[in-house]
Amino acid sequence: MRVLALHADVIVVVSEVWQTTCTAARAGGEAFVIDSPIYPEELRALPEVLEQAGFAVSGLLATHGDWDHLLGRIAFPEAPLGCAESTARRLASEPGEAARRLRDFDAEHYVAGRHALALGSPQALPVPGRLELGSGSGARELELHETGGHTADGVAYLLAWAGVLVCGDHLSPVEIPMLGPGGGIDAYRATLERLRSLLARSEWVVPGHGAPIGAGEALAILEEDDAYLGALREAGESAPLPRSRDDGVQRRWHAANVASLRDSRS
Questions:
Q1: Sheet containing 129-133: which strands, arranged edge to edge?
Q2: Residue 263: inside a domain, yes or no?
Q3: Residue 261 counted as domain residue
Q4: What's this model's pTM, rounded to 2 decimal places?
Q5: Which domain range does residue 84 map to?
Q6: What are the pLDDT digits (tens) for 91-143?
Q7: Can you tell me the distance from the alpha carbon of 66 to that of 109, in angstroms, rounded to the nearest whole number?
Q8: Of 84, 209, 105, which is closest to residue 152 (Cα–Cα)?
């Protein structure tokens, strides 16, 4: 895994698989970890990496309920997990689903030595809202902003004091927009408009997949994604993919988007 420092108070870890990101933010003597890397050795190394950097982890956050963003509990089994109210509802309606998907991944990729995933009882956070990190004069606030469209649930975290936006599976430099279960074009485009206003207050953007990017590059990706979704609605299978993300893997995701759109219309 790669470890990148975006700010004195923000470290991003990029997993070796799917370039899944994990963001650690600290203020006022404590730290939160947002999302997670994937491989067991990455999760085993994460606490040591953050401890050496002076990040005292007291809580976990998730951008949404897809299993590959929920593995922080393996690295920090005693830390509480917070998520949007929409994600808490999703996890409650899918008991054991994240653990099952993780087992399927490990079986497919011959991954051994994994600790079991136990999410506990996630704390539901109101969105939009604010979450305090730390105490005393050094405390800071994370802003919580609704996201949707990729799935039915989700939240973006704006670390305004550091100029960092953590936006889950949106604005990815390596993936096209993906319409997963509960997602849809209208909700996705509405999320893009909310993120547009947040980019004006950000220097760095941490997508769920792909290394952190500058706000200017993120804005260009936002425009490409919005154009793709508009074309997907009008042209379906014939919609052109963003030029920088037009490859065999993304074309398979495009086919899945077309199928999802077809199902929603039937």
A1: 129-133, 140-146, 155-159, 164-166, 204-206, 213-214
A2: no
A3: no
A4: 0.95
A5: 2-216
A6: 999 999 999 999 999 999 999 988 889 998 999 999 999 999 998 989 999 99
A7: 18
A8: 84
Position 262 in a domain: no
- Band (pLDDT 50/70/90 cuts) for residue 262 is confident
pLDDT tens figures, 150-166? 999 999 999 999 999 99
* Residue whose pair of structure tokens reads 């970890």 in the numeric block: 33
- Give the pairing type, strands 30-35 and 57-61: parallel
Q: What is the DSSP string of 194-236?
A: HHHHHHTT-SEEE-SBS--EEHHHHHHHHHHHHHHHHHHHHHG
Query: Could you tell me the CATH number of the domain that includes residue 118?
Result: 3.60.15.10
Rounded Cα gap, residues 102 and 72, in angstroms: 13
In a domain, 226, yes or no: no
- Residue 22: count other Cβ atoms within 10 Å of its Cβ: 29
Number of structural domains the chain divides into: 1
